Structure formats: C-alpha cells, structure tokens
Amino acid sequence: MPETLLDVEHLSHVFRLSKHAHIRAVDDVSFQLHRGEILGLVGESGSGKSTVARCLMNIYQPTAGVIRYQGVNILDRREFARNRKMLETRRQIIFQDSASSLNQRMKVADIIAEPMHIHHIKPPRGSLREEAAYQLKYVGMDASYLDQYPSELSGGQRQRVAIARALSMEPELLVADEPIASLDVSIQAQIVNLFKHCNQEHGFSILFIAHDLAMVEFLCHRVGVMYRGRMVELAPTAELFGDPRHAYTKALLSAIPYPDPVIQKNRPRVDFEELEFDREGAFTEVTPGHFVLQEDRR
Amino acid sequence: MEEILNIKNLSVNIHAPGGTVHAVRDVSFELYPGEVLAIVGESGCGKSMLCKAIMKLLPKSAKVEGGQIFANGVDITHYSQKDMEKLRGKLFSYVFQDPMTALNPTIPIGKQIGEAVLVHEPKLPKAQVYERVIELMELVGIQRPRERYHLYPYNFSGGMRQRSVMAIALASNPRILLADEPTTALDVTIQAQILDLLKKIQVQLGTATILVSHDLGVVASAADRVAIMYAGKIVEIGTAEEVYYDPRHPYTWGLMQSLPALNKGNAELKTIPGMPPTLVEPPVGDAFACRNQYALEIDYHQQPPMFRISDTHYAATWLLDPRAPKITPPIGGKRNA
After folding, report:
1. Do A272 and B258 touch (CB under 8 A)?
2. Rounded to 5 degrees, what are φ and ψ at B32?
3. Which domains does chain B have, with CATH numbers?
C-alpha cells in the first residue's frame, strides 16, 4: 500500500453570497493522494475543483471536513502553527493565469528566489541568483531570462517560471490548478512533459486540475470527476476512461475532441446544458480502487 | 462553385514602437458558400489579424499592406468604414472569443439580440422584432426563450452566452460567419455543443464559416477544410481528410504529434522545439526551418512556394520539391474509420 500523503475527508465549502444566498461549492468530498502519484481532478467550470485546491492550500477555510497532510490536520490552527514551516514549503500551488499570479514588477530571478528569501532558506547552490538560474534551467529555460519581467515572456514561459518558483522549495506536493488551460497545444505538451518528468525523476506528488480530459488521461495515474461540488467518480485512469460508471463521467468522456474528422463527425454526443445528473447517494467502491457516487442498494 | 470570399496575397503590418510586425504575410485562400474553413495556428501566428483584416476591424496601428479581398466578386480592399457598415452583419458577422466581454452586462439578452435585428431592419414593428429574437434564440439552441428573453448575461452560463453572441451575429442572415476561437473560453462539454451548433447553422442556413482555433482536435468535428497558419503564412491547406490523414508540412506533423490523443502509450508527448520567430524581422527562408528537424539547406535561404498535392491540397515546404529527399511522415497516413 503506498503511503498516503494527503487525506481529505468529507470536505465541504460554502460561499455565503448574502444573508439568504449561499453556494455549496464543495459538498462532502473525500479522497486520498498517495506519495509519488499524479491525481487528476476534472469537471466543468463551477464544479468546485479550484475550491478544493484552495482548501488544500489553506487559502480557504472549509466549512466542514478534515484535511490531513502527512497526518497533520491542516485545518486545526494549533497543529498548523506547529508545522507551519513544513506545510508552507512542502506544499506548493501553481495557478492557471500566470500573467496575474506573477508579480509584474519583479524580475524572473527575484520571483523564483522570493520563497527562499521569505522562508530564510540558505540556497543550496550558492547565491539566490544561482539557485534561480538552476531552477530555471530545470524547467527548460536558460539564464538569459533571469533579468526579464513576466510581461516580456510568452504564456508558456511564464508558466515555467511559476513552476520553477514552486520547485525552488523542493516541495512534496504540487497543486496545479489548470496550469495548461490558456496555452497553445505544443506548449501544453511541453508543460505536461515537465510535470511528468518532475513526477518520475523526483517523485513529486501532483494534484493536477484540468478540464482537458485528453491531457489528464495522458498524465495522471488516478482521476477524480467532480460535478456541482460533489465527487461523482474516482478511479485509476485506465479504468475511468475504459469503464466509466457514472452517467456524468460518460457524458464528459463523450465530449473529448478527437483529432480525426471521420470519427469525430460520426460520434454520438450527449447534450449537457439541459441535463441533470445524479448527485445523491453514497461514494461506493464498485471494484477495488474504483469509487462511484451511487444509490445505496443495500 | 462560385467563391463567396477570395483573399489574394493579403499582407497586414502592425506598426509598433519596437518595429513593424509582419502579422499576416502573403495569405491567399477562397471560401465557398456553405463550407466551414478552419484556420489553425499557435497564438501570435496572425490568425485573428487575418479575420480582423477581412472585416476591416483592424486596430489603428495595423494596416493592410498589400493584396486584395474579394467578397462576392467585388473588391472590398479599399472600402471605407461607411461602406463596410453596409456589409457587416449582412455579408459577414464576427463571433468573438470571450462572450462575457462581447455582451453588454447591463442590457437583457433578448433586447441585445433585438438591437442587432433593428440595426438591419430599423422599421420593423416591436412585436415582429420580438418574434424574430425568439426565433433566433431557438435557432442557437437556447431553450425556453420566452422566459429567458429578460435575463441578463450574468444569469447565463458561458455556453449560453456564446449562443447569445451567435444569435446576435446571425440576426440578419449573414453569408459568412467569422468565429474567432469561439470555444477557447468554454468547457470541453460546452465546446462540443457550440461546435455542433456551428455545424447545424451551416447546414440549416448555408452560412459559410471561418473557424479560428489553436487546437486541431477541436476543429476536426466541424471543419470541411483546414488551413494551418504559421508565422503569418498559410503553410498547408486542404480538406479535413487530407490534412488529418495525409499531412505534408512538418509544422502540421508537429501540431498533430503534440496532441495527447495521438500519444497513447508514449512515455512523453512530442513537442515542437523552440519558439515561433518574431514577426518584426521574419526569417529570410522558411519561418519554420529552425524548429524543423527535417529542414533542408534551401529552407534557410528561400521561402518555399505552395506545392500542389491535389486540387484541394497545398503545402508550403521544400520537402515536396521533386529534388528533395523522401521522408516518411511521422504521423498520419492511417484512416482509422
């Protein structure tokens, strides 16, 4: 049994919009992330994927539920304070829009070195600048970019800088919130390869949030499907794509564009907008490792 | 068949402080009534500029430097904005990438569609405008249009907003629809629907569509013909079957190889090395040469012409020259029906 790095139990998060209106963005979600695993989280916009990511990173304080990172309950203020340094360096997040997540007025070298500066970490490779150059090289960019500003870089390069910044802390867990959503296809492939490399060579565990199912199928070991705040299915990738059980997963899979005009033109498609899918029931293990949200038949 | 739009050797330059950007370089293509032509390329390859040049919606700093645009056989290259206003909406309409910014957030959806109807038929009685709006909303697949007539854009989901934008674009039965990345801001599920809708409209109304996208996977379902753009030029154009099953340009190979769907079982995705060139000073020879593992000596000195492969299929690469060494394409060739 692989070691559980992150354990999420019955996580719920409610946004209060006003006195009377609230949105249940995440509703009773439970899953585990094992060490050295890439877990994909897919779903439409508004399904609560990003909210889950933000809860995991202590950006939001969830309404209910428990999140344990290596056994530490990160939602408990005392436990968090006691393990603060570990939690803040070992977990890193990469946001979707690198244009707004990087400081426009800082140079690339400073952006990458900033976390080390904040956490008073002595750079293992001499100066902060050398360390930044090393991280930049790791993500496939050379040192000539060190003195540039984010606005001078392309979208793919900016996303690499964001990844380099996250990697400078030598994290165990990378939470990547739609890191490839706004990039060109060939650049997406480069970034996905980089994630795969990080995982295989250095054993980073990655929570990969995306709505591009083809990329998720390629990259992830296990995939969780979210629908309106609930996790409706969680299974190893091959099983989820080969034998989807929940109606929503099936519908979602039918929407993946396939680059072949004949196949694509003759495929049955499920109409979504007017459809309601089942989001009630219990999260049941149908085959080992394959969980589906379904009516309890016992 | 008579072409409805004919672009001949169109060039667009953008005059920026850092130098002149050659955004569109010598692009020629035809569009026939009732077909969907997909233009595929990476960001910055000039595909949006090309569409804007056709509609004469270019920013002030950009100018059409050369070439001609024929619409319905009439040369509209030097039309003034006033003349263009008569064509926009009736002859061609534009669907923008982001439906949120294309709609006015303070006006109900139905009224916004009605505005578009009124622009083209100012004397139409109110009741008829209403009926026309309902008809348009039904056409683009907005269910229960009478209830939704009074809703605001923020009440709508991304897909519904894009449908509304398309209703506005279709308000006066345009013959050409230019859709500039209409699904990029949307979810996969919604994307599939919008593409189906494009196809439906094209069949139902016979509208010719130019569909701009950066993803070959996305356009496979909708496109009749596909043009691949790189560094301001069309490098390959052909029917969808020809481009997907028998791609000839190395850049098309690269684009297809980087799709995860075609990489099953591979340890990592194939990528195209390097970056697209800056178009301030476009390279002398083939712009793709420095990223092309199959590049020949001549690629660095001379631009390849469009080689004819079949009557509908053309590609600009020296590999198609009879003197070039024979290379087996790394992708395509199989028709897995």
Report:
1. no
2. -100, 155
3. 5-223 (3.40.50.300), 230-320 (no CATH)
Query: Do the Cβ atoms of B69 and B106 come closer than 8 Å?
Result: no
Q: Name the DSSP letter for residue B28.
A: E
> Closest partner residue to B271 among A193, A197, A263, by Cβ?
A193
pLDDT at position B337 = 38
Which stretches does DSSP call E strand in B101-221? 176-180, 208-213
For chain B, say whether A178 makes contact (Cβ under 8 Å): no
Closest C-alpha to B215, from A178, A183, A185, A215: A185
Count Cβ atoms within 10 A of the Cβ of residue A165 and give its class: 0-12 exposed, 13-18 middle, 19 or more buried. buried
pLDDT in tens, A55-81: 999 999 999 999 999 999 999 999 999
Q: CA B336, CA B245: separation in Å to the nearest integer?
A: 9
**Local confidence band at B336 (pLDDT 50, 70, 90 cut-offs):** very low
Q: What is the DSSP letter of A102?
A: S
**In chain A, where the domains are located:** 4-97+173-294
- Reported as a pLDDT band with limits 50, 70 and 90, residue B117 is very high
> Residue B159: pLDDT band by 50, 70, 90 thresholds?
confident
Instruction: Pull the structure tokens for residue A98.
Output: 């690198």
Is B216 touching A (CB cutoff 8 A)?
Answer: yes
CATH class in words for A4-97+173-294: alpha beta
- Give pLDDT, residue B17: 84
Q: How far is A81 from chain B (nearest CA, A)?
A: 39
Residue A134: which region, alpha, beta or left (left: phi > 0; alpha: psi -120 to 50)?
alpha
Q: Best of B154, B157, B189 to disrupt the A interface by mutation (most A CBs within 10 Å)?
A: B189
Tell me whether residues A262 and B143 touch, CB distance under 8 A.
no
Chain A residue at shortest CA distance from B215 = A185
For residue B176, the distance in angstroms to the closest alpha carbon of chain A comes to: 22
Structure ipTM over 0.90, yes or no: no
- Output the pLDDT for position B165: 92
Of A190, A255, A271, the CB nearest to B271: A190
What CA–CA distances, in Å, run from B12 to B87, B173, B249?
Answer: 21, 28, 23
DSSP letter for each residue of B226-271: EEEEETTEEEEEEEHHHHHHS--SHHHHHHHHT-GGG-TT-SS---
| Residue whose structure tokens are 């319905």 | B72
Of B191, B261, B272, which has the smallest distance from its Cβ to A186's Cβ? B272
pLDDT in tens, A131-190: 999 999 888 888 889 999 998 888 888 988 999 999 888 899 999 998 887 788 888 888
Give residues with Cβ within 8 angstroms of A284, minimum separation 6. A291, A292, A293, A294, A296
